[in-house]
Design goal:
398 residues, alpha/beta, Alpha-Beta Plaits, Cytidine Deaminase, domain 2, 5-stranded antiparallel sheet
């Protein structure tokens, strides 16, 4: 069936026809116009409505059987619902087509706009699915690319050797030493900014000096080359902890989850040296007198202070996470530091927060709103003034 109605159609009148004799389409159309003429008044005259485009072309689809004619009549209407219903009712007053008795029964008035709305919804779902499957991955890739470029922009050159490093290498109390530039970029990508690269097989003087005054973690690839770099670094610098990437993997290709998991499993240098000695490997360590004494002095100092907050925070080192405790000290949960403020706004019953990160005003405002009584972090942000939050014990443990 071709196009049977005007573009402004709102409704379709569907009617069934039964004639007791044989009739043709022109007979049906003629009967519709002829027998409704003058019936509804000038404003609803079918011929005039069709001339003005408010009634479309009437379609009749007929079939003959046993000397009778049966068929379907469709009348497109651009009128309102009430006027269309009146036209439909008028069709049922037709009782003859030509010389033959006939009966027309209206079956339904179809709202064409509802069908269009249904089509729009289905089509929109189809288009949305296509966007989700085809466009969004590209967008994510684009976003990740931009983030990667931003991380690269954070890359610095540090010391006279111009070593690749993160922006917090100077102010951080702890540093992470990796093998090369790509390793630094990957850690920056995942939010670790206190990182610096050896940029070679030997330990540069800059890193040797840094290791004397900062807690230093060596993070190397999970291969034979990584083992050799560990031995070299332990001989030449004051390394406190040793971390290896999973076997066969390089630091530059690790995911955030793999990085944090590896850092949580860092091994104190003394334990690592004992492991080497059990394998028959003896290190010829430079500054043998100074470095071990410094580490021992640091440990004694911690033992004398015996700060439980420092010990609790030490267990979070390298995780970039915050642990939330209730009033009894029971753990309620852990979240990434970057999600801490938003989590505190939604969570109840938090009494104490330990966080492997910088205590900022945003975090303290969220803690104040949540009724938190204590916040312990690595250090305080430059804009933080603890006296502005008398209801919260604000503490930095380096």
């Amino acid at each position: 069936m071709g196009k049977i109605y005007v573009d402004s159609v709102k409704y379709l009148i569907h009617a069934r026809l039964e004639a007791r004799g044989l009739v043709d389409k022109p007979d049906v159309i003629g009967a519709i116009f002829g027998q409704t003429e003058g019936l509804l008044g000038g404003e609803l005259e079918l011929r005039e409505l069709q001339k003005t485009g408010r009634i479309g072309r009437i379609e009749a689809k007929l079939e003959r059987k046993n000397g009778k004619t049966y068929g379907e009549i469709i009348v497109p209407s651009g009128l309102g619902m009430v006027e269309t219903a009146i036209i439909a009712a008028a069709l049922e007053t037709i009782d003859r087509i030509g010389p033959t008795e006939a009966k027309i029964t209206v079956e339904k008035i179809e709202d064409v706009r509802a069908a269009k709305r249904k089509f729009i919804v289905e089509r929109a779902k189809e288009l949305l699915k296509r966007v989700m499957e085809e466009e969004i991955p590209d967008s994510k890739e684009f976003i990740n690319k931009v983030k990667e470029e931003l991380r690269k922009a954070e890359l610095r050159e540090y010391g006279p050797e111009r070593l690749p490093a993160g922006p917090e290498i100077e102010e951080a109390d702890e540093i992470i030493v990796v093998e090369g530039r790509a390793d630094v970029i990957n850690l920056l990508k995942h939010g670790i900014r206190n990182v610096i690269a050896l940029n070679g097989n030997r330990v540069p003087k800059t890193i040797r000096e840094l290791s004397k005054r900062k807690i230093t973690t060596l993070f190397v690839d999970g291969d034979r080359g990584g083992d050799l770099i560990i031995r070299t670094a332990l001989e030449q610098a004051d390394i406190d902890y040793v971390v290896k990437a999973p076997d066969g993997k390089e630091v530059e290709e690790l995911t955030q989850k793999e990085i944090l998991k590896a850092l949580r499993r860092k091994i104190p240098t003394e334990e690592y040296v004992k492991m080497l000695e059990k394998r028959g490997i003896k290190l010829e360590r430079e500054e043998t007198e100074g470095a071990p004494r410094r580490r021992r002095a640091r440990k004694v100092e911690k033992e004398e202070v015996a700060d439980p907050d420092a010990e609790r925070l030490a267990s979070l080192r390298g995780s970039l996470e915050a642990v939330l405790l209730d009033e009894k000290g029971e753990e309620l949960g852990r979240v990434p530091v970057k999600e801490l403020a938003s989590t505190l706004k939604e969570m109840e019953g938090v009494h104490t927060v330990f966080m492997d990160g910088i205590v900022t005003k945003r975090i303290l405002e969220a803690a104040k709103g949540a009724g938190v009584k204590k916040v312990v972090g690595v250090r305080l942000g430059p804009a933080v003034k603890p006296e502005e939050y008398p209801e919260i014990e604000v503490k930095a443990v380096s």
